[in-house]
Amino acid sequence: MDLEAEFERAVSGEQRVEPRDWMPDGYRKTLIRQIAQHAHSEIIGMQPEGNWISRAPSLRRKAILLAKVQDEAGHGLYLYAATETLGADRGELTENLINGRQKYSSIFNYPTLSYADVGTIGWLVDGAAICNQVPLCRTSYGPYARAMIRICKEESFHQRQGYELLMTMMSGTDAQRAMVQESVNRFWWPSLMMFGPPDSESSNTEQSMKWRIKRNTNDELRQKFVDMTVPQAEKLGVTLPDPDLKWNEERGHYDFGQPDWDEFWQVVGGNGPTNAQRIAHRRKAHEDGEWVRAAAAAHASRRARQEGV
Ligand code: ACO
């Protein structure tokens, strides 16, 4: 059997592909693209919430938020490490991000205007991330699947802290309840966009499903997210800003409206509300870290010389 046929057989038989296994170039490229975008999203995703660390309303909230933002950095690092097992170079991936050659999730191009946004991001954004990422624990590439297991555990904790924060605000004053509703109004539609374009416009889904990199289509996961979130919104006491949202007895799912896909493509194309700010901030952090990378490289080469490696 030729290598390609053997690979297809192994993948369709649910066997994991490991770094030293033979794999088609397209499979390797698709994985590097998806995992790098995912890693970039975790790293850029530190910014919107990081914005509130110095203004958290209590020491407890500040400690939680700090820990959460640090977790996102850790997720980014596991994922960059997973791309390295495919032969990618982490430095090049960072260059691709700050030069706009690689994407990151559209959701992080929206500003965080109130403290309620910290709760809403935990509930809706991390909730959407979990829906998308739990199936990726069964993705065909071993290092990615294993990274996802730990990431999902932490995301699930993040989601609960967001929901708990919002619950606390909802049991507060009218002004706090209004702040939560306003935040949910802003984040609902961008959260639905996180799953990617409708299946009919998703250029990568068909092949990625065949290779079992993706385990569900974008629309399937979006539906799952809506079904999971509506009862949570009811319990919380907020209204989701979609007049078309209603239970469909026949389908056994909620019907819902479509996000503004023109806005989605604008944001993906670099023209969202905070794209320029996010990239400028990431570029500055990278440049400011140059001396750390130089020192680490000098230290590593001195050690290698001393040990005669
Ligand atoms: N934001 C930015 N770009 C997106 C988004 C999005 N929400 N959704 C899709 N795109 C891009 C795709 O990257 C693709 O562009 P490319 O071919 O130039 O790379 C294009 O739009 C068409 O989309 P699809 O063909 O549907 O892309 P794909 O099959 O990669 O599916 C998805 C997109 C669902 C996001 C997939 O890549 C995935 O599951 N990734 C892993 C999870 C992830 O990256 N999460 C990040 C946010 S979660 C968090 O960080 C907390």
UniProtKB/TrEMBL annotation:
InterPro entries: Aromatic_CoA_ox/epox (IPR052703), Ferritin-like (IPR012347), Ferritin-like_SF (IPR009078), PaaA (IPR011881), PaaA_PaaC (IPR007814)
A GO molecular function held by the record: phenylacetyl-CoA 1,2-epoxidase activity
Coiled-coil annotated residue ranges, if any: none
Any one GO cellular component localisation term in the record: cytosol
GO biological process: phenylacetate catabolic process
Protein name, UniProt field: Ring-1,2-phenylacetyl-CoA epoxidase subunit PaaA
Source species of the chain: Saccharothrix variisporea
